[in-house]
Amino acid sequence: MIKRLAVLLAVLALILAACGAGDDDTTTTAAADTDEAAQQAGGTLAVVKARGTLKCGVSGSAVGFSETQPDGTATGFDADYCRALAAAVLGDADAVEFTALTAAQRFEALKNNEIDVLIRNTTWTQSRDTDIGMQFAATTFYDGQQMMGDPARLPGLTPDSGFEAIDGAVVCANAGTTTEKNISEGAAVAGVTITLETTEDIPAAMEKFKEGSCDIFTTDGSGVFGNRFVEQAAGTPGADDWVIFPTAPFSKEPLGPVTRQGDDQWFDVVQWLVFATFIADENGVTSENIDEMRENTPELGRLFGTDEGELQTKMGLDADAYYQAIKQVGNYGEIYNNNLNPIGLSREGTFNAQWFDGGLIYAPPAR
Ligand SMILES: N[C@@H](CCC(=O)N[C@@H](CS)C(=O)NCC(=O)O)C(=O)O
Questions:
Q1: The whole model's pTM is what?
Q2: Which of 327, 307, 310 shows the shortest CA–CA distance to 318?
Q3: In angstroms, what is the span from residue 106 Cα to ligand 1's centroid?
């Protein structure tokens, strides 16, 4: 707390000094006290480089996206994006400190500088982008909300069912999410009455669903499928019969990395990390073949640093920053397939396919 106050004071002092309105003594003392604050004023990229580790905010209990392991690290699609960012900025995919955050904690944690970047199944919305000062990098996973119910409790439930099927139901969702807003709004529009029970996280919502105190479990479709997959694999009685509906999701949930507004250099680094994984995927450049493939076209050479790498060095990164990300972690398709195919989510025919395959995964040119 005291440290945070000192950081704040030092940043304020630097700002005042820059405006020529600061008291000299205060400025020098406060700034010298916390070089972290000085770096903070210089941007997150400088902070991360000086610290030597990346602080990445994840969920920790999102199946396939970020699951905390016994040693405190995390695995999954989002966790791999943290690792790829660390590889790009620090040359080491393992230089990540993961912080598990609930949905309700995540934006405060980013605002308060507890983390450098938030990669936690986070939906890009207008109010998050504008009102609460978040900056959303390119979407890495196009998701949409769905529900799950047990036909043993809701007879006649099928994948084609809609909101009419949940009239009078108790619905569980995790707090601080778009999920709870979408379900309430959807029910109201459909003219059905539901009782919404919010839980701190998804595992708590699943527990209520399994014990029968909730009739319906709802979250982003990836989470609904992921949680059913885990319960089926664990042999939970009845899980094979659970129905996911409606077939077409009833909301748009574009998920991607989030930075603080007002740190353009850091935002660009994160944004182009995502684009680098897209461009590698587009061109068949993988962790296995990047050494040969980056020689193939001028664009791949520019992005993966076979020339002077000045596209990267002008961003404050090493020439081979994005080469390291792909080499150590993988391209978009590798990150997707390694983490999401095992839980039954396939890219084919979804918005997460490349643009030339009818999807929305598209990056501007590296030039
Ligand atoms: N995308 C939505 C929902 C985010 C969310 O909470 N997703 C679930 C899974 S899809 C999750 O992270 N669960 C793990 C947990 O609650 O710890 C949002 O940004 O509000």
A1: 0.90
A2: 310
A3: 10
